[in-house]
Design brief:
This protein is mainly alpha-helical and 323 residues long. The protein is 80% helix and 3% strand. It has one domain (38-163, 193-322): NCX, central ion-binding region (A middle domain of Talin 1, Up-down Bundle).
Length: 323
């Protein structure tokens, strides 16, 4: 009993260390190429912080634990908004630009809506399906949306003219070393996390979906919490909000786009409820932008952060009672 728990914790530590090291290298690489701050948040840093989810999902798909895979992504997206942005806003209110409100946040909402349509075959299928499943075709559709998102961010980098964020630039040798070492930590940590998370779920009689939504999702969201929390503390608002929104879009379009290509993912009927929670969380983030704003100055305020955190606690209680 103790050994799987210790190995799971070791896997989380390796994931976090690997993700942090990878982000250092990737962000340094981006600055060397003169990529703008918001694009670093939406792509480079978001990819680095989504790398943990990708590694976990690939192992889960290969090892035949689809509930853990879908739970990981849904749980990560929900915790990114309610927990990560909630805590970040409590640390320091986050100013949000109009472009982020009208473009990136709606893209995040669209991502989970598309996921719901593709995964709820019982409701949106041709009437012949009795189960929900993310097929390889669904994965290709999600990847097509991912390509569109990347094209958008590339266009954004052409017109963006912001101040530079405090992103340290390393030598080329250090940059490449950070990227490779980070990826190694992510792979080994992801393997330990999936293997031992599955063992613990079976030992305690918990579902793999529950483990994915809680232990694995919170663990893989810790890089987002660290990145956005530090960015909020340093008043780097673009990086704080861009990291979370970009990571959520990556999770759906990139991670869940690739995962079914490895192996189609049956979607537990309970998971459809969690997809709706993810949609509601993203929609609430959008709605909060228009509460109390003045002169087109939009902020995620401390009290809104408190509401997010309380909603996340309520969600954990809900899925705990559901089992």
């Amino acid at each position: 009993m103790l050994i799987p728990i210790l190995l799971l914790l070791l896997g989380l530590i390796m994931l976090l260390a690997g993700g942090d090291t990878f982000i250092k290298g990737a962000a340094s690489l981006a600055r060397k190429w003169n990529i703008s701050p918001i694009v670093i948040g939406l792509t480079v840093v978001a990819f680095g912080t989504s790398a943990a989810e990708l590694v976990v999902n690939i192992f889960a798909a290969v090892q035949g634990t689809p509930d853990l895979a879908i739970g990981n992504i849904l749980g990560s997206n929900i915790s990114n908004i309610l927990l990560v942005l909630g805590i970040s806003a409590i640390i320091y209110p986050i100013s949000v630009k109009q472009g982020t409100i009208w473009k990136e946040i709606p893209l995040g909402i669209m991502a989970v809506v598309v996921l719901f349509i593709l995964s709820a075959d019982v409701y949106f299928g041709n009437g012949e399906s009795s189960i929900n499943i993310l097929t390889r075709g669904d994965g290709l559709i999600l990847l097509a949306f991912f390509i569109i998102f990347m094209y958008y961010t590339y266009g954004l980098s052409k017109v963006e003219g912001e101040k530079e964020e405090d992103v340290k630039t390393y030598s080329w040798s250090s940059t490449i070393s950070f990227v490779l070492l980070g990826l190694g930590g992510l792979v080994l940590g992801g393997k330990l996390l999936v293997d031992n998370g599955t063992i613990i779920a079976r030992l305690f009689g918990m579902s793999e979906l529950f483990i994915g939504l809680t232990v694995v999702a919170i663990g893989t969201s810790l890089p987002e919490l660290a990145a956005s929390g530090i960015a909020a503390y340093r008043h780097h608002d673009d990086l704080a909000i861009g990291n979370v929104v970009g990571s959520n879009i990556f999770n759906v379009f990139w991670v869940l786009g690739l995962t079914p290509l490895v192996s189609p993912i049956p979607v537990n009927s309970q998971a459809n409820t969690d997809v709706l929670v993810a949609i509601l969380a993203a929609t609430l983030l959008f709605a909060f932008m228009f509460v109390g704003h003045k002169h087109k100055r939009y902020k995620l305020r401390r009290w809104q952060g408190v509401v997010f955190v309380l909603l996340y606690v309520a969600y954990l209680v809900f899925i705990g009672m559901r089992g």
